[in-house]
């Protein structure tokens, strides 16, 4: 039976905790002199990237190689896609090569779902980000980072994030990271508040399992984690806020605002950061900022997902997909 990871909304609480627990085991591999496991020896994984993403592609590639998989990297630029080849044709070419899993990033929301359900290929499909829809492994690595910092590395085994209060700030409208995190953090029992300018809040957000606020300062003192989002100018076709200075004044995180957060609270960012606008250098370089940890944890999470989809004995995700939000 095919098994895929398309959306964070598809994961049950037990699925998500299993992935986080498995990632803790995978993280120990990074402490070994030889950072390799034989789990996926003889398996072939294709990284099918129709959008540029150095950080995510390298993270997946590192995870695949640590599990001893054969790795093929595909980028649309300079490939047959730039000559007009369709997603179906590309998928069938990969199927003919006998790949076992496809990690896909695509600018169109729903492309990974289409690939997983079309019958074009039998390989497992992992969504590495599609349009403004979902980025499930980013949500998982964010949850993994929160659990380690807020619950504890060993104390967190088997635990979720019940009772934790998470604030997500910025360009929610264009952010698949925000959507994925709201879905997964709600599943894990956390209380999520979205903070954004009214122009950067999506239509229908009232139906999401979270609170909405337009005032960052009022949410900081009751947050266990504050996640800053990247302002995605490449997806904007209009002016969504007056100036960068105005955005920074109302929604940027600086030292004064960080001081209002509880002492144990952490600052997160999916990267790449725009310093001076979304976050000041003082905050980005502080001990409370987990950006570098998030990058390292991304490899462990992606190893766990690949292991559970291709090499583990227990299922990591459900086989049926919930409705898109």
UniProtKB/TrEMBL annotation:
Binding site for L-aspartate: 83, 176, 230
Source organism of this protein record: Streptomyces mirabilis
A Pfam family annotated for this UniProt entry: OTCace_N
Recorded metabolic or biological pathway in which this protein acts: Pyrimidine metabolism; UMP biosynthesis via de novo pathway; (S)-dihydroorotate from bicarbonate: step 2/3
Recorded catalytic activity of this chain's protein: carbamoyl phosphate + L-aspartate = N-carbamoyl-L-aspartate + phosphate + H(+)
Gene name per UniProt: pyrB
Protein name: Aspartate carbamoyltransferase
Residue ranges of domain Aspartate/ornithine carbamoyltransferase carbamoyl-P binding in the record: 3-147
Domain Aspartate/ornithine carbamoyltransferase Asp/Orn-binding: 163-309
Domain of life: Bacteria
Protein's job: Catalyzes the condensation of carbamoyl phosphate and aspartate to form carbamoyl aspartate and inorganic phosphate, the committed step in the de novo pyrimidine nucleotide biosynthesis pathway.
Subunit structure of this chain's protein: Heterododecamer (2C3:3R2) of six catalytic PyrB chains organized as two trimers (C3), and six regulatory PyrI chains organized as three dimers (R2).
């Amino acid at each position: 039976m095919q098994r895929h990871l398309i959306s964070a909304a598809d994961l049950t609480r037990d699925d998500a905790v299993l992935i986080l627990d498995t990632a803790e085991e995978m993280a120990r591999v990074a402490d070994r002199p030889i950072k390799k496991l034989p789990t996926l020896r003889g398996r072939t994984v294709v990284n099918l990237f129709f959008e540029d993403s150095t950080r995510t592609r390298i993270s997946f590639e590192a995870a695949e190689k640590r599990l001893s998989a054969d790795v093929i990297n595909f980028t649309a630029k300079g490939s047959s896609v730039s000559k007009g080849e369709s997603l179906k044709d590309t998928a069938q070419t990969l199927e003919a090569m006998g790949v076992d899993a496809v990690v896909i990033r695509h600018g169109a929301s729903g492309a990974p779902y289409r690939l997983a359900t079309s019958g074009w290929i039998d390989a497992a499909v992992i969504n590495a980000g599609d349009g403004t829809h979902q980025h499930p492994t980013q949500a998982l690595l964010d949850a993994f980072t929160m659990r380690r910092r807020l619950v504890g590395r060993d104390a967190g085994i088997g635990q979720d994030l019940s009772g934790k209060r998470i604030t997500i700030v910025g360009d929610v409208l264009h952010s698949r990271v925000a959507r994925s995190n709201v879905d997964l953090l709600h599943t894990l029992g956390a209380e999520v508040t979205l903070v954004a300018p009214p122009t950067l809040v999506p239509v229908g957000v009232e139906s999401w399992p979270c609170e909405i606020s337009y005032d960052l300062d009022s949410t900081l003192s009751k947050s266990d984690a504050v996640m800053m989002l990247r302002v995605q100018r490449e997806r904007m076709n209009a002016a969504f806020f007056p100036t960068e200075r105005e955005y920074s004044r109302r929604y940027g995180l600086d030292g004064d605002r960080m001081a209002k957060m509880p002492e144990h609270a952490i600052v997160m960012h999916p990267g790449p950061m725009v310093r001076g606008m979304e976050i000041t250098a003082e905050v980005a370089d502080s001990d409370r900022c987990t950006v570098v940890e998030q990058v390292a944890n991304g490899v462990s999470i992606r190893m766990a997902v690949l292991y559970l989809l291709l090499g583990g004995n227990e299922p990591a995700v459900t086989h049926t997909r919930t409705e898109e939000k």
